């Protein structure tokens, strides 16, 4: 884990307000565009292997969700491998024995990162989740790569993906654990459906 203490950037909610205003005027398909040639199903790589992964910069306003939807899941499933990638994680972060860390993954390797974990967790920044209708671009990147995304819940998500068919949602540790129990056929179906949705509408 990182050895230097960092401060999370401050967010006054202005980005989320602007995003919600734009979403009110645009159809979901007009709000985000993904390069379908760049974000494609990748190849599995051992260094990225995990049951559940999370790719994102550390932010204090996501820590509660990260604890409930990721760390507590890892605690209850010590037999599984979990992977976090992203900068600015503080030294006091709870690094469990079955939790592995990469400070940086090059964007060119994101497709392989997603392909190497059975599920990937999306956690929305606090202000963006509060105002709703403001997904992060990485959500669409992961879906375009046929990742099976487990996302936190926030208003408007259903305008971008069909919950259950193209993405799974969770508000609790138990809901994430339940999602991790799905079989390979279901995972593949959701991943393909998510990519099809991105290609058709984003």
Write up what this structure looks like.
It is built from eight helices and six strands; from the N terminus they run ααβαββαβααββαα. It has helices spanning 14-25, 28-31, 63-76, 110-115, 126-131, 137-144, 173-180, 184-201; strands at 50-55, 82-85, 99-102, 117-122, 149-152, 168-170. Strands 3-2-1-4-5-6 form a six-stranded parallel sheet, with helices on both faces. The termini are far apart. The relative contact order is 0.19. The model is unreliable at 1-18 and 21-30 (pLDDT under 50).
Strand order of the largest sheet: 3-2-1-4-5-6
User: What's the SSE pattern?
Assistant: HHEHEEHEHHEEHH
Beta-strand residue fraction: 5-15%
- Low-pLDDT segments, ≥5 res: 1-18, 21-30
Q: What is the CA-CA span between the terminal residues?
A: 35 Å
Number of helices: 8
Rg on CA atoms, Å: 16 Å
User: How does the major sheet shape up?
Assistant: 6 strands, parallel
Secondary structure blueprint with pairings:
Layout: H1 14-25, H2 28-31, E1 50-55, H3 63-76, E2 82-85, E3 99-102, H4 110-115, E4 117-122, H5 126-131, H6 137-144, E5 149-152, E6 168-170, H7 173-180, H8 184-201
Parallel strand pairs: 1-2, 1-4, 2-3, 4-5, 5-6
Helix pairs in contact: 3-7
Task: Characterize this entry briefly.
It contains eight helices and six strands. The chain is of the alpha/beta class and 202 residues long.
Which properties best describe this structure?
202 residues, alpha/beta, six-stranded parallel sheet, 8 helices, 6 strands, 38% helix, disordered N terminus
């Amino acid at each position: 884990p990182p050895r230097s203490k960092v401060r999370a950037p401050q967010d006054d909610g202005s980005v989320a307000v602007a995003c919600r205003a734009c979403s009110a005027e645009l159809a979901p398909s007009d709000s985000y565009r993904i390069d379908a040639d760049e974000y494609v199903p990748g190849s599995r790589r051992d260094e990225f292997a995990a049951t559940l992964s999370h790719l994102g910069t550390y932010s204090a306003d996501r820590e509660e969700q990260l604890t409930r939807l990721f760390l507590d899941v890892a605690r209850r499933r010590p037999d599984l491998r979990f992977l976090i990638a992203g900068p600015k994680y503080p030294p006091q972060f709870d690094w469990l024995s079955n939790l592995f860390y990469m400070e940086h993954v090059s964007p060119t390797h994101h497709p392989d990162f997603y392909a190497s974990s059975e599920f990937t967790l999306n956690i929305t920044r606090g202000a963006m989740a509060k105002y709703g209708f403001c997904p992060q671009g990485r959500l669409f990147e992961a879906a375009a790569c046929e990742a099976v995304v487990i996302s936190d819940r926030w208003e408007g998500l259903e305008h971008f993906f069909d919950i259950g068919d193209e993405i799974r949602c969770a508000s609790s540790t138990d809901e994430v654990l339940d999602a991790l129990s799905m079989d390979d056929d279901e995972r593949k179906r959701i991943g393909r459906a998510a990519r099809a949705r991105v290609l058709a509408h984003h």
